[in-house]
Amino acid sequence: MRLRAVECGALGVVLLWALVSPAWSAQQSATPKKPAAAQKQPAQKQATTKKPAAEQKQAETPPTDTVPPTDTAPKVIAVTDVIPSSELALTQLRDIRTALEADTSIGVVETGLPAFSEQLNQWWQGEAATIRQLRSMQRMNDILWQLRLYEGQIETWNALLTASSKMWSEEKEAMGALLAIWKETQLTLDSAAPEDVGKKIAEVLSEGDGVQQLFQDKTAHLVTIQSGLAASLKRVIEIRVQVDAVNLQPSENLMTFTSPPMWKALFTEEATRSTSAQISEGFTKLYKDVVRFFELYKDRLVLHGVLFLALVALFLRLRHLSRQPSEVTPTDAEKFILDRSFASAMLVGAFLVLLIYSDASPQMMRMILFPAVVPLLILLPAIFNRRIRRPIYLLTAVYALDFLRYYLPPQWIQVRILLLVEAVMGIGVIYLLQRARLFESEKLKSRETLVRALLKIGIGLFVCAIIANILGALNLAEILFSPLVRILYIGVVIRMMTVVFTTFAMMSLRSPIALMLRTVQENGDAVAENIRRVTNFIAAGMWIIGSLFNIGIFGILVNAVEKAFDAKLNLGAIGISVREVVMFVLVFGIAYALSRMMRFILAKEIFPRFQMPRGVPDVLELMARYGVLLFGFLLALVSAGVNLSQMTIALSAFGVGIGFGLQNIVNNFVCGLILVFEHPIQVGDIIEVGTHSGQVERIGFRSSSVSTGDGCTVIIPNSELIGSKVLNWSLSDQLRRVTLRVPVPIDTDPNQVIEILRAAAHNQPDTVDDPAPSAALDRFGDGSLVFILRCWTQISKHESVTQCLTLAISKAFQEAGIQIPITQSEVHLRLPNNVAAEFPGLEKLK
């Protein structure tokens, strides 16, 4: 029977997926279409069949009393309505003219396109020869980045022109319908109509002709601009093809000796050229980039300066907050960051470049990010000890030389010497890092071993780069050296930015607004630690992405992931796409995280601020949590491409599995709803269910958890909590009565016993005075009097009060000389005479 139920449930689930699958929905909702030939057949037949002219005229002009006019025919304006309608029509046409003349989309593209095309050609002329001479991974990444910027600019302009063209088409269609009405009105105008009426009609049509001519001029101009954009896009595609051809060259080209060995190159004519001329050429190129940057982004520089001043003021305010007592304690590194507020603001302001100048070229982006080296060196002592700071200072020098080398001719012998010096300095950096203690904690020994192994690999790469440079394989030397230097430096920069941002977040928790939160007031350090953990996780992800980008495989991985997402698994009529599955999991995962966050916010921040009846906060929390989950589930289905119109049939099919195999689960679910909304039992209540008693820890939609006094947790189905007798000690009040029955000898004074019992109850600090303790003679026992003591205490203290009262009563009885009676029984044995004669020993027992 259980196996059959499981089979029915599985059948329901399979039917559900089959019905909600996008491929299945598309197959079910598709309607058969006639072939194109069959659709065109009536038109062809009508075109080949000719009728006499009289019959055609009679068919085309049916009698007006039998066939009403069609809706597509233009209407005629009454003579009395011509003048007021003409004013409205003229206003509408003039508005259209004003909108057309005010549309600057064509002007924007026309103004920027020539400079764009010239810049594109000049840029590629300078880069084409460079990438053929030196296969620098940095330059290849920069070129691909710049191409994406160019493509994005063309797409933006195309979208702007497309939107304008669409708007013009709609306006032109509306104007055509308007002018058709006025032309029809002019044709049907009676000769006896007033002269002003004819003038107004002519004025409207004249204005319409002018607007139509403006439409034609704008359209011709638009086509010309679009042709120019198409030519620019074609040029970008040609450049990308050439770049891809360089990228797809066999890896053996890395071992090609593109330059003579260094011992020969030092004595060539190229080596004797003026060094100052080459350096001057490089600095001229840098100067031109600086000037062009200021020309392009002079408006944004003002915004950048204002943001920098705001950051300085903000860090000064945070430094003031750090010196006040609070629940959030800053670390030593965070205090160091705050004490150097100006340098911290400079570092954050430098990285705002990525947001403010997001459309800048990679060459310009590197140029304006280079000054961030200064605040970075100032803030290094915040997170690195003295022995680690020395190799990082040396690494910064290597990075600066690598930045300057970018502006020098790649085949220049001095550039090769500079690359050789950088590699030697890089070996020194790794050697100093190996000698330093990277991790202070003993728990991170395994991590330090891994890092040291990677540093040894780095030394090997730098040595190979030096050998390749000396032999003349510049492509190999560049690829072995530059990416590793940038990866190391990016790690240092991201680590420093992580500390700066966590400092900002920690001090924000000290603000008056943050201190209004109960979570910050009660668990400030825990919140701060969670923020640090999340920030470190994000920083690690950014470092990995930056490293992959510098290695040159980030784009390859992105393309591979996109291809994997486009893959589909066809199971008969059902098509499952990896992208759809990932979108479903991602959206539902976000909804689940939001539901947990909402549960925490409601329970910790909102509900404690309001006085609510018993059970209402739990109901609101469950409704909000499962409401978010339900909405997230539906949104995940839509994101995965599921047609929600098929959900009715799917739920019907799923109901078959529920009806046959999931009866108990549905029963418990419905009982859980009753518990939630009727709330006869709440979390924290002390209950007794059958042989189990304890405190309710959780109430779910299928089962509930009860923690017993033995230390175990009992999972009770909700149907038992609804369908059986449940003893709830917390439902009516938070007090529970303690009842003790005490026997005393039959000759004891009852009044004395009652006073002792009452005094013991009153002297117990955990008993309440209202209701007051009471004691009375309960019944007569076998040779004893049984008294009963009743008092009240908190539910959570019932067991401890019972034990304390028992000990107190025993001690009071001992002091009063009252003994607890012990029940004794006397047995009288009577034996028959014949038995007594047979067993003489029984007489003695008797």
Uncertain ranges: 1-71
Mean pLDDT: 76
**Which structural class is indicated by helix and strand composition?**
alpha+beta
Q: Please tally the helical runs, counting DSSP H or I stretches of 4 or more residues.
A: 31
Strand runs, count: 10
Report a brief summary of the structure.
Helix content is about 70%, strand content about 10%. With about 850 residues, the protein is α+β, with helices and mostly antiparallel strands.
What report would you give on this structure?
- It is extended and about 140 Å long.
- Helix 7 (137-187) packs antiparallel against helix 8 and helix 13 packs across helix 16 (373-379).
- A five-stranded antiparallel beta sheet has the order 6-5-4-3-7. It has a three-stranded antiparallel beta sheet with strand order 8-10-9, with helices on one face. Strands 1-2 form a two-stranded antiparallel sheet.
- 19% of the residues are buried.
- It has four domains: 79-248, Glutathione S-transferase Yfyf (Class Pi), Chain A, domain 2; 262-557, no CATH class; 575-642 and 662-728, Roll (SH3 type barrels), CATH 2.30.30; 735-816, Alpha-Beta Plaits (2-Layer Sandwich).
- The model is unreliable at 1-71 (pLDDT under 50).
- The protein is α+β, with helices and mostly antiparallel strands.
- The protein is built from 31 helices and ten strands.
- A hairpin with a 2-residue loop joins strand 9 (774-781) and strand 10.
